[in-house]
Specification:
CATH topology of one domain: Rossmann fold
Radius of gyration: 19 Å
Number of helices: 10
Strand order of the largest sheet: 3-2-1-4-5-6-11
Distance between the termini: 40 Å
Helix content: 25-40%
Low-confidence stretches: none
Largest sheet: 7 strands, parallel
Shape: globular
Strand content: 15-25%
Mean pLDDT: 95
Length: about 325
């Protein structure tokens, strides 16, 4: 049972949901975030809890060993996301995603943390045509961001085998849900489409719209993290975390129109450099070794997300 944990990047979209869920599990939770991509309002309910603590700062500059002392697990969510951002500034992506991960692993080892759960990405697979993607497939990263996530996985595996630090890497597939920021120039497609359609705008699809994604509602991903922190015999392993199905961007627009009562027609533009055409996960390994099963399907997750955007609008 987890008693004391830390969530790096806990002010972010996924990290804040995870921090809230861990409090509900009865844990004492320390969130570490410099809010460079996270948001203060994501932590409004969190910081009122008696078992919650917020440490403001950059993971590359803080005394993480002291912060992690006595903790059962560290959930390493902090990262500089986005493929386009990494293409524009690969140096910064490497600094945050690789150097930051190494800092977390070293501190966790020295502090005696029992397990580190690392947020990786399906982008490590690249654009290989084989579907669904399995963990034993050869990785083929196509962007600096994907390279940084794969490097983090390798560091996690090495720290388990060399130092005995239990690590588990979770490859996220297109996570979506409430709190995902639609205003950034690097916004994910679902919050971008929902906010735009609600505002009467036409969604912009980069490509022909036939590209598909295994969209994963955030509640499923949170549950996978908690399972990964407590499952036995999975040190050094990598798992796909998704639903095992896929939706095209055209189908996504149709679904949002249905839920909002709108009739937005997409605008098609040139595909984005570094993007993959199709993404779908084989989640058999996570089911078998973690006991993971997605409990919120795509349409229900989209309904909840649309409702959140409506309330904010």
């Amino acid at each position: 049972m987890l008693k004391s944990v830390a969530v790096t990047g806990g002010g972010g979209f996924i990290g804040s949901h995870l921090a809230d869920a861990l409090l509900e599990e009865g844990c004492s939770v320390t969130v570490i975030d410099d809010l460079s991509t996270g948001r203060q309002d994501n932590l409004e309910s969190f910081k009122k809890h008696p078992k919650a603590r917020i440490v403001a700062g950059n993971i590359g500059e803080l005394d993480l060993k002291r912060i992690f002392a006595g903790m059962d697990a560290v959930f390493h969510q902090a990262a500089l996301p986005s493929v386009p951002r990494s293409i524009k500034d690969p140096w910064k992506s490497n600094e945050v995603n690789v150097d930051g991960t190494l800092a977390v692993l070293i501190a966790a080892k020295e502090a005696g943390v029992k397990r580190v759960v690392y947020a990786s990405s399906s982008s490590v697979y690249g654009d290989t045509p084989t579907l669904p993607k399995r963990e034993d497939m050869r990785e083929n990263p196509l962007s600096p961001y994907a390279v940084t996530k794969l490097a983090g996985e390798h560091y996690c595996r090495v720290f388990h085998h060399v130092y005995g630090l239990e690590t588990v890497s979770l490859r996220y597939f297109n996570v979506f849900g409430p709190r995902q920021d639609p205003k950034s120039q690097y916004s994910a497609v679902i919050p971008l489409f929902i906010s735009g359609i609600l505002a009467g705008e036409r969604p912009v699809i980069l490509g022909d719209g036939s590209q598909s994604r295994d969209f994963s509602y955030v509640e499923n991903v949170v549950r996978a993290n908690i399972l990964a922190a407590t499952a036995k015999g999975v040190g050094g392993e990598v798992f796909n975390i998704a639903t095992g199905s896929r939706i095209t961007l055209i189908q996504l627009v149709d679904a949002i129109n249905e839920l909002t009562g709108k009739h937005a027609k997409p605008v098609f533009e040139k595909p984005r450099e570094g993007d993959v055409k199709h993404s779908q996960a084989d989640i058999g390994k996570a089911k078998k070794l973690l006991g993971y099963t997605p409990t919120v399907d795509f349409m229900e997750g989209l309904r909840r997300t649309v409702q959140w955007h409506k309330e904010r609008a």
